């Protein structure tokens, strides 16, 4: 084994996780899905399935407390946590919250964080059943673990998409990134102009700022799927950005994908921010993460039926044979490879 | 609500968690035990129980990388995680590991950490089924969440102890703290004498250093309880120290406790370290944490039977009526209150 210092950046967190998951480790036969989907899946004795997922949020990396109120942070963390369970077509039941808390945080700040967690918990009907609170001499680090349930009939993996399936997206894309761009701009303004300056007016940007700070996990889609007895062939939530999620579904399903740029759902407010920043709004939609929308695949016939029951989604493309690769038809009619998009 | 900055230290993490758990939050009727035991307990449809627990370890607070090899750290974190499941008389099945990793850590260091996790995972037959890897600009923070199972017949809470029950402890106490004292002394020596000094010989202290760095969770006790069909009336693992754990069992069971100082199980190696440090070894046993031993209560008759099947435990006291409080009979025969022990 090499004695050289190999940085994690040089292989990326995905590369590192691949290295690690190739180790010789104990395998539990009850585990039907380990690392590699939105949540791990474990078979219970009764035949139903347990879903487990967890995420970490690092101050200064994943959130900036200068523009993130702690109650919003709590709300977002719980929402993102349950979103992983929804992405498996499951129902979140309980969460554990772990905090490493620097001593510049007051009791009130931690209470605010929990108020946000509890507010989102009510909405998604999950109980905070445990966790840990430790002192940290450095920054705030929050981990959340989510426990959810689904039965074998309804579970939706990334790997189930079929050739010809429509690729569907709830809501709209790029809003969370647009909100982040605004908050970063305002932070820069505060830093340059100091405390004596007038507080910025975020009212005009309320839509996108909310998309960034208090995103909503799409319980409504999963509830409707259940009520109307539709089961997507695959599903994933939008946390890393559309291109990344389409790649994940395609890779897991051993297929290619063909996306129509003109079909990308983008809110007018998101467009306005991109215009103001003189940036390309389609890039927000393709690469912006954290929207917590759900992307799912369904046969064309099923889409035509489902639209009668749920209308906050659009079809943005089709699953195609693997040989056809990952392509996007631009608004101008050109066809570009995902590899050329970056 | 007060606008003053109230430090977390001023109310303690326990006080803060109490504040938080009094909030108006969603309650899931499937949750039969929330915050307040070694693990949360959730009832499955089939009738069996799911156990969930999670812990956080902060570099510079919970571990010091100058004397903690990363593979040991991984081993210890997994062992402490499964210990919470054993404390409920359960079987650990799977874990999720979350890392916030500073960029001064190499790929090899993270691999070492996982090697330790996997080594302990094999021993305890748990699979690493997921988690998260994030960059941190500050220190290493590790969270582990453990999923375990137990049936309703075997689950052991903190709250089930009966008056007259014997208080039993596996293994021995204070070893992990003795190991920590040695490692801290050696660190100070290195810092004062620099790199040119001879590496210290830890061979004489191998027993206690191992107790600190690679403690063993007591799977053997839980396996034997199951095989021989014994069910403790209550159980907890030794992570905060004996006095704290006896208090937790007594409080949860609404009883008092009477402990015999002379009965505290202390290894000869632990005594030698305390002597060398000119410290009181009984304080190591009473207040030292992280031993990962199990403390359990059982009726006297059952203890007499159980000793035929498992011999690495001793009786250190009895559960008494609540009115009699928390007391310890010293080796000299005096009776002191827990409150006077600190």
UniProtKB/TrEMBL annotation, chains A, B:
Keyword match Calcium: no
Cite the binding residues for ATP: 114, 131-132, 158, 239
| Known catalytic reactions | thiamine phosphate + ATP = thiamine diphosphate + ADP
Q: Where does Mg(2+) 3 bind?
A: 38, 84, 237
One Pfam family matching this protein = AIRS
Q: What class of enzyme is it?
A: transferase
Please list the residue ranges annotated as the PurM-like C-terminal domain: 163-323
Sites binding Mg(2+) 4 sit at 38, 53, 84
Sorted keywords for this record are: ATP-binding, Kinase, Magnesium, Metal-binding, Nucleotide-binding, Thiamine biosynthesis, Transferase
Asked if DNA-binding is a keyword of the record, the answer is no
Q: Classify the source by domain of life.
A: Bacteria
Q: Name one GO biological process term.
A: thiamine diphosphate biosynthetic process
EC number(s) in its UniProt entry?
A: 2.7.4.16
- The residue ranges of the PurM-like N-terminal domain are 36-150
To which pathway does this protein belong? Cofactor biosynthesis; thiamine diphosphate biosynthesis; thiamine diphosphate from thiamine phosphate: step 1/1
Q: Which residues cross the membrane?
A: none
> Which NCBIfam families does the UniProt record give?
thiL
PANTHER family, per database record: THIAMINE-MONOPHOSPHATE KINASE
The record's HAMAP family line, in alphabetical order, gives:
TMP_kinase (MF_02128)
Which family is this protein grouped under? Answer: Belongs to the thiamine-monophosphate kinase family.
What task does this protein carry out?
Catalyzes the ATP-dependent phosphorylation of thiamine-monophosphate (TMP) to form thiamine-pyrophosphate (TPP), the active form of vitamin B1.
Name of the protein in question: Thiamine-monophosphate kinase
Which gene is transcribed and translated to give this protein? thiL
